[in-house]
Every structure is written in C-alpha cells, then in structure tokens.
Amino acid sequence: MFEIIREKKKVLLFVLLALVIPPFIVVGAWDQFSPNREPVVASVDGVDIYKRNWENVHQEFVTNFKNRVGNNIPDEMLNSDEVKRATLDNMINQFILQKVVSTSRIGVSDSDVKTIILGIPEFHDEKGVFNLDQAKKVLGRQGMSTVDFENRLKADLSLALIPEILNASNFVPRTIVRKLARAENEKRTFGVKLFSPLSYKNKVKVMDTEVKNFFDDNGSRFVIPATYDIDFIVLEGDDGVDEIGNLLYEENSSLDPVAEKFNLKVQRITRLDLNAPAIGGGKLNNNALRALNDAKFRSELFSDDFLIENYNTELIQVAKGLHIAANLVKQHEAVPMQFDVVKDQIKSEILLQKMNKVAKEEADTFFEEVNADSKLKKSLRKVVLPFRSNQDQNSDQYSQLLRQFKGELFSHELEINQGTVLSLGPSGAALVFFLSSELEEASSKRVVESLENIFGIFNSAETDLVVKAWLRDYEEQMKVDRYLKVLLTDSAIAQ
Predict the structure, then answer these.
(1) Angstrom distance (rounded) from CA 49 to CA 274
(2) Which of 157, 229, 482, 489 is buried most deeply by CB count within 10 Å?
C-alpha cells in the first residue's frame, strides 16, 4: 500500500486524522507482553489482563502525560487509585470494542487508510509531500515496519468507527440548542465594591519575632535552587538520526564521540535551573534555545540516568528536523538564603497577608449590611459583564477582574439580588451583587453565530454519553471481573 501511495500521491481530505485514536482507547500496549504466570487484574469474556500488561499501559499513560505537561505533576496524583482504575477500564473498553469489531465485521477501506497515511506530517518531505523513505525511517525508529503500521492503523480506524456509528443515531433538540446559544450571549449586570488591602496598611503591624518565626517555619522556600552545567548537541535535519542515537547509547558517558564522528558542535549552558527557561545570554541560536526549552527534553533531564548515573540523554526529537541530546557536566547544589537577605521580603509578605485579612473582614461586614438594607446597593459600581468575553474588547479593570470569576458569576445557582464576596488573593476582596440579566433574541446575529458551536459541543457530549452507555450494556453481556485488590497493591511501575 505504501508503494501505491508513493506512485499516486493522491490526497483524500474527507477523513480526519483525529479519528485514528479515540481518547478512551489505549492502543498498542496490551499486546506487547503476555506472561503465563502473572497476577491477573481483570478478566474479560474469558481473557485475562495480566498486571504486567496493565503496568505497561499505565506507565505509557504517565510518561505521555508528563511529556505533554512537564514533570511538576506529583507522581502520587498520576498513580492514584482513581487513575489506576481508569487505565484498567480503558483496557477493558478496548477489548469490548475489539470484540464487537471482530464479530460484527466492521472495517475500513484501503482508500481510508491511504488518506490517513498521506495526512501524517511526519511522513512528509520538506515540500510537504508524502515520502516513502521518510515514512520508513520514522517507523523504524519506533521498531515498526510499514506492514505493522498499516495493520495497526486499520485496526484503530475500525475501532473509531463505533463512536461515529453511535453518533449518527443521536438526536439533538433544536429548542435546547437555541436556548444554550442565547445563554452563551447573556449579559449580566453586577454591583461591585472593591476592598484593596493597601487601604488598611495603617491598621496592621508586623513584629520582628513574626518575621523570624516565618523564616524558621518556611526554610525550604528561601533556597536558591540547584543549577546544572550541561553539554548538548543539536542536530538540524534527519540525516544520521539512527546512527547518532545508537552511538549516544553505546558511548553513554560523553557527547564527544558522537560530535567527532558526525562533525557536531558540543555546546554548553551553565547554571541552568531545570524548572526555568533557558536564556543563553545571546550565545545560543533560536534552534538551540527551542530545543533546550522543549518539554519532552526537559523531562529527560529529571531522570536518574541523567542526574545520578551521568548518562547521555537519548536523541530527543523536538520538531521535524530538530533533535537534541545532552550530558551533565556539573551540578551546583541548592544554597539556603541568609535571613538578613530575605527579612524585608518576609515582612512585606506578612504585612500583605494581614492587610488582606482585614480587607476580607471589611467586605464580609459590608455584605451583611447590604443584605440588611437593599438601599446600599445604589452605592455599588455597576458593571456589565458579557458571557462571551470577545463582545467587550475595551473593558475596564472591573470587567477584567470579574471575568476571572465568570464560571461562578454566571452559575445558574446565582439568582438576581443575591451576592457574594470574592477573594482576590493579594489584591484583597470584592463584594459582588447580581442585579439584572439580559438575553438576546433567538434570531439575533450573535445567537445565530453561536448555534453551530453549541450544536457541536452538545453533540459531542451526547456521543460521549451514548458510547459510555453502550459500553456498559455490552459489558453486562460479557463476563467481566475486576480484581482491584491485585490492581492497587504495590507494583513495579516506574515513578
């Protein structure tokens, strides 16, 4: 099939790449390991899911999630009981879908598979045209042949058809969509009074003993973080990627062998904080900075292999034609700050906390007064806030402030003439009363423009509910057992 694509170069645009992997399907990890004597975490229609299989799937999820959002997410959150059960449920759902696809003979045509392959950017050459050699190179780095990829892709597309089939049977009431479109264009008028902490500066004091106690109790906050001197190489282009990657692994304690063999420049950045962006001081070009600040590359720098064993990182692909690898040169330990250096900062922080506390108390007191005497609402500043922020481009500071609490202020639970006190963090507090609401006519231009978007959201939510209900119904027709005690016991998952 790949050979046919190279010959025809025909792009079919009617199939979306987004259909390849539905969000509730875990692809490819289940069949990588099938032990005979392993703890079983679930059984689906007589087929066991071994704990090691599930660990592979779960760890793949954890790794991919960290690559997307960074390493600051606590491991205990990603390895919580709830997340573990969710990844197991995904595996069970995948089995049910595969069973239905197999027994119902649901499949996709070769032309659909061609369309998807043609649309994968990683398979394109510099001109944006599908290139067979490029595709083989990309798949080879993942340990897959073109035949393996085609089979996997066809299976994934077949699984994706089920939500599409169920979606075709959905019925979205027009009246509900129109009401939601009107609600999206609602404008609410609020009465607002701000309580700035700076207004209460003369009402609070900070003692020297408070400052010292705060420093002693929060010593971990007043530390200059560890920094690192790092050597790195940047590869611009895809030539020699596999050979460079292999040599980095074989000569894993230095970048010099790779640099010498492939004529690459070893660059160095000093005093890099792994949780802060690299700047380079004008000595590094844009591609080097882009690679150094890439989330996937940064995740590699947190690994024990890099920080403790002092191994090279893998050759990380930052973007098409841009790769980076690094080696640790030196670690500069974290340094505690001296009290005299930070005491003024601490005093200011405690002072602000106390002023904020007074501001909040004043806001609560005035809130009670307004509730007792509605005439006081006339003293509040009127602010008109649209639900769609782009309706009011020249909004004042009051509108900008309230927009941060749009979810709460446009809640159906907040009724007219009800109020609340909003905490503004270091900016004090705000008293807000809901005074009135305005809904546009169903035939207005803005409401009509919102209909398509609302319909899409509503339809997507309906599809999600239908698919979940459908999976539950099918699960009841099969014998499905979950062994949660086995699942939730300590395992060999890498943190």
Answers:
(1) 38
(2) 157
